[in-house]
Amino acid sequence: MEEGIEHLKKHVFAMQPLSDEAWQDLAGIWQLHHYKRKTILTAAGETERHVYFVLNGVQRIFYIDAHHEATLVFTYPYSFSGIADSFLTRLPSRYFLETLTSSTLLRSTHTQFQQLMEKHRDIEKLISTFTAFALMGVLERHVELLTYSAEEKFRTLLKRSPHVLQLIPHKYLASYLGMDATTFSKLMATVRIE
């Protein structure tokens, strides 16, 4: 647990340095949880009650309806996870969060974060900074999905996160890139990874 909290501190302080008191309070709200592979942590229709910090394993956020399944986000060490819009707005999620592999996560609740934001201005700033970076990532991804060719999407993914080919089943990577599995396989065979 201590090593996980140190990874959390490094990640948090890279975004927003905190006072000693704020950090001690933030470090104290996490619990260590282990989940089996293919565990649904949050289902569509539920309001996200937790925020997670990933210590081990891979998770995905996905959307599903009668006709489509689309992978929206992958999380892996050392990053935050959870259905952020539902967590922040307190509205039911339209998405699922599941573990793709067995996972070790630090977990905290919305209530605990709310109390810390009311007590510490710098934790409120941390949440604001995190939200701004998340929005920036969503907008960048939106541009990629709307304007990039299949090969450009593939190359961008590998440039940003080359390790995902070994971590994540290719059918989920294809879904994340908005292409079918056949196109993804062709790109795997023809695109030189630099």
Textual characterization of the structure:
The relative contact order is 0.16. By secondary structure, the chain is α+β, with helices and mostly antiparallel strands. It has a domain at 2-120: Jelly Rolls (Sandwich). It contains 9 helices and 8 strands. A hairpin with a 4-residue loop joins strand 4 (59-64) and strand 5 (69-75). It is 51% helix and 21% strand.
Largest sheet: 4 strands, antiparallel
Q: How many individual β-strands?
A: 8
What are the segments in which pLDDT stays under 50 over at least 5 consecutive residues? none
Strand order of the largest sheet: 1-8-3-6
Shape: globular
What's the CATH architecture name of the domain at 2-120?
Sandwich
Give the termini separation.
37 Å
What is the level 1 CATH name of the domain at 2-120? Mainly Beta
Tally of separate helices: 9
**Residue fraction in strands:** 15-25%
Average pLDDT reading: 93
* CATH homology superfamily of the domain at 2-120: Jelly Rolls
CATH topology label of the domain at 2-120: Jelly Rolls
Radius of gyration: 18 Å
Structural class: alpha+beta
User: What percent of the residues sit in helical stretches (DSSP H or I)?
Assistant: 40-55%
The H-and-E topology, N to C, reads as HHEEEEEEHEEHHHHHH
